[in-house]
Amino acid sequence: MLTALIFCAATGVNVDTITDTLSAPIAESAAIGVKAKQWQQQKAIEHSEQQQALAELYWTEFQIAKLERQVTEQQQQIATLTDELNNIDAIAQQLEPSLEVWYAELERLVAADMPFLTEERQRRLRFFRQSLDNADIPQAERFRRLMEVIQIEVDQGYGSVVANHPIQLQGQNIQVTSFRLGRLLWLAQSQDGSVNAYFDTAFGGWKTLDPRYASAIKDAIAISKNQQRAELLALPLPHKGEQ
Questions:
Q1: How many CB atoms lie within 10 A of CB 203?
Q2: Has the keyword Coiled coil been applied to this entry (predicted)?
Q3: Are residues 161 and 224 in contact, defined by beta-carbon separation less than 8 angstroms?
Q4: Tens-digit pLDDT profile for the chain (243 aa)?
Q5: Do 190 and 170 meet the contact criterion of CB atoms below 8 Å apart?
Q6: Shortest CA distance to 122 belongs to which of 102, 140, 103?
Q7: Which of 138, 180, 195, 230 could form a disulfide with 190 if both were Cys (CB 3.0 to 4.6 A apart)?
Q8: Helix (H) or strand (E) holding 161
Q9: What burial letters (b/e) apply to 131-151, b meaning 16+ CB within 10 Å?
């Protein structure tokens, strides 16, 4: 600064003029530096935005590819379901006569079987018959109802059942306690034990049983009612036509 003052004194140049002359380039340089910094910041922002846009583009492409795979898989599933539906229609056409055959077989079975729970079993058959005659019921539901009837009939072929009811024996109406072992045998005994009988499916009715089985029948009834501990019993297994 002292040199500048000496120079100004020697030349007669105004100090302010020199200061202004020197300050202008400095200010311009500072402005250029600010602009350069702003430009760098702007470029950094643009670069960041470009990176973000590029990432979004990659993500979008990934999602599009994923959706395309899903669409392809769904189209394959639709094609598979269409084939299955066509097969179901074919099966349904084949199933309808089979259901009729099964109904006829169940009807024959109930009619020829021991007459236990007759009203209940006939009611199930009527309900299934109505299902076959109702065009609004799908074949799948008809088949489900058929399986239900069959399962119940199968279940009734197992276990033991004790019940009190009247029977017709030699033209007389007799009150008895009966013991049914599935579909294997159906025995009955009067309260005083004087009447013992078995149901003959071939005959379609009750027949008198030898009195020697009275004790075994009484024990079987008690065991089935949990009134006596289980033990082996010599129960009769009547053959068709046995008297």
A1: 13
A2: yes
A3: yes
A4: 545 444 455 555 455 565 556 566 666 666 777 777 777 778 778 777 777 767 777 777 777 777 678 778 877 887 786 776 667 667 667 778 899 999 999 999 999 899 999 999 999 999 999 999 999 999 889 999 999 999 999 998 888 999 999 999 999 999 999 999 988 899 999 999 999 999 998 888 999 999 999 999 999 999 999 898 888 888 887 655 444
A5: no
A6: 103
A7: 195
A8: strand 160-169
A9: bbeeeeeebeebbebbeebee
Contact, 182 vs 207, CB < 8 A?
no
List, in sequence order, the alpha helices (H) in the chain.
2-11, 15-112, 118-133, 139-155, 214-224
Q: Is the Cα dihedral 115, 118, 121, 126 positive or negative? A: positive
Question: Whose structure tokens read 């979004």?
Answer: 56
| 224 CA to centre of own chain | 37
List C-alpha distances in Å: 193 to 83, 228, 232.
Answer: 66, 17, 20
Cα(188)–Cα(228) distance, integer angstroms: 18
72: tokens are 């392809």
- Which whole-number Å values give the CA distances from 241 to 2, 147, 156, 176, 204, in the listed order? 149, 33, 24, 23, 11
Output the CA torsion sign for 92, 94, 100, 104.
Answer: negative
Instruction: Please check whether residue 185 is in contact with residue 239, taking contact to mean a CB–CB distance below 8 angstroms.
Output: no
What CA–CA distance (Å, rounded) separates 15 from 1?
Answer: 10
* Residue 33 main-chain phi, psi, to 5 deg: -65, -40
